[in-house]
């Protein structure tokens, strides 16, 4: 694939920077830092452009917080001016990374997403009798900066863009030379791109027809157990040698008819069920919502709004009985 150049000038264009602000501010206009930036928008965008043209981007200003959904994760949110920069970079560079992506990579891509990945997995489960479900141990924390930048250099020949990526990546590490922060736009795209190297190896070297990846969760399907066991050994070696990554121990090598755990669902050839962890998370959130309502913190309208967002996840699976119970209890559309 031909490398792409002359990207940095496009990142610096005033029109691109203004578009980056609009994307960064979408749905966040009520936040103080967004309002402060918007109040002096022309001046702030001019400053950002000057910093980029001087090759002195101001990066590395993060706010850290922890979420539990379901496991504990440290989220690293960039300050708003830096989020504008991230959008400016990805406005121009995302199409370059997109051209490298295979069809069956589903994270951080327009027209893809979690539900499309699950439906594709269901189609493969109907075609192939065996599946191999894998995911990477501490994925974001384990990404090697030097290997990531080397992979980017195979796609991009603009030295200024590569330098800017190196500066952004270098602002965060979990150990020397490793780690991308969870919660940043650039990190999400780069993390998805990093495993694109695995995607091409699976499709072009192993020649696996049934394969789906959503970030660091991926599934291979095949005709028999021995074939997939061989792919497992090869995948371990490839990830270690090429990307410096290791697989989690919870390998799932089983018959497709028994269901594959994928993205919170149990995917069978003919139906979708909620996985046990997703059911537990749903129950905990439901109890929390009921408590807010009973204690008067939420109105019925508040309850309905939160319940709709919660039900959108379970509605995708075969959960008619569960949703009928919700309707009977709360009168919420399911």
Description:
The chain contains 15 helices and 9 strands. The chain is of the alpha+beta class. Strands 4-5-3-6 form a 4-stranded antiparallel β-sheet, sandwiched between helices. Strand 4 (210-214) and strand 5 (217-222) form a beta hairpin. The protein is globular. The termini are far apart.
Question: Which key terms come to mind for this protein?
Answer:
globular, 15 helices, 334 residues, single chain, 9 strands, four-stranded antiparallel sheet, three-stranded antiparallel sheet, alpha+beta
Question: In summary, what is this structure?
Answer:
With 334 residues, the chain is α+β, with helices and mostly antiparallel strands. The protein is built from 15 helices and nine strands.
Provide the low-confidence segments as ranges.
none
Count of DSSP H/I helices: 15
Structural class: alpha+beta
Total count of strands: 9
* Largest sheet geometry: 4 strands, antiparallel
Return the average pLDDT rounded to an integer.
Answer: 90
Shape: globular
What share of the residues does DSSP label as strand, in percent? 5-15%
Distance between the termini: 47 Å
């Amino acid at each position: 694939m031909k490398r792409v150049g002359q990207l940095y000038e496009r990142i610096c264009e005033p029109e691109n920077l203004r578009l980056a602000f609009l994307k960064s501010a979408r749905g966040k206009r009520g936040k103080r830092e967004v309002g402060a930036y918007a109040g002096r928008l022309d001046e702030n965008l001019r400053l950002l452009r000057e910093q980029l043209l001087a090759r002195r981007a101001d990066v590395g200003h993060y706010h850290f917080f922890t979420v539990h959904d379901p496991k504990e994760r440290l989220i690293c949110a960039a300050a708003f001016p830096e989020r504008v920069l991230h959008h400016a970079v990805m406005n121009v560079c995302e199409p370059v990374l997109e051209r490298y992506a295979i069809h069956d990579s589903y994270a951080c891509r327009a027209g893809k997403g979690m539900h499309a990945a699950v439906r594709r997995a269901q189609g493969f489960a109907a075609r192939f009798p065996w599946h191999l479900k894998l995911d990477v141990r501490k994925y974001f924390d384990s990404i090697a900066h030097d290997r990531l930048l080397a992979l980017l250099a195979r796609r991009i020949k603009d030295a200024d863009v590569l330098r800017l990526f190196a500066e952004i990546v270098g602002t965060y590490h979990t150990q020397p030379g490793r780690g991308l922060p969870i919660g940043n736009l650039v990190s999400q795209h780069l993390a998805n791109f990093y495993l694109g190297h695995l995607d091409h190896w699976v499709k072009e070297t192993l020649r696996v027809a049934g394969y789906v990846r959503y970030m660091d969760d991926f599934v291979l399907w095949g005709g028999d157990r021995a074939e997939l066991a061989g792919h497992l050994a090869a995948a371990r070696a490839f990830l270690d040698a090429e990307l410096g990554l290791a697989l989690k121990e919870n390998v799932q090598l089983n018959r497709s008819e028994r269901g594959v755990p994928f993205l919170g669902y149990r995917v069978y050839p003919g139906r979708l069920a909620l996985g046990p962890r997703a059911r537990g998370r749903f129950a905990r959130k439901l109890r929390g919502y009921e408590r807010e309502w009973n204690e008067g913190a939420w109105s019925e309208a508040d309850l309905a709004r939160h319940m709709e967002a919660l039900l959108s996840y379970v509605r995708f699976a075969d959960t008619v009985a569960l949703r009928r119970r919700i309707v009977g209890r709360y009168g919420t559309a399911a």
